[in-house]
Amino acid sequence: MNDCKPNRSSPLLLAVLGLGMTVASTATADKLPKPEAAAAAPTAVDNSAINRRDRMSQTLTPPNQSDAPEDIELVAALRRSVLDTPGLSVDGQNIKIIAHMRLVTLRGPVRDYEERMSIERAVRRVVGDGAIDNQLQPN
Length: 139
What we know:
Alpha-Beta Plaits, 3-stranded mixed sheet, globular
């Protein structure tokens, strides 16, 4: 008859192996590059002041966009023109374009003054001498 006795060294062996794995993982973790704590200052995400400004009745926001077919077509053409402009930042590509009674309002943050003017030139290619209210804000 085969008498199977539990192996008492198994728990000890598992403990030793577990300790070895912990030491190995610690040694490996020491070789990993450390994250740079001060690599970049955190960006302020509080835009409460901008939101308050946008709630004021005289500030145009996308809900003020006219439903007139000519204004909708104008905004689509303006968006295409802006997106066809090479080198724009993501912010520059995502500006608000609002057309109301053929008045074009541009709003939102852009990378710098050069990008602001580049977007205005793209809009001028579409509207010509039409009225543009450029409220883009360089960072």
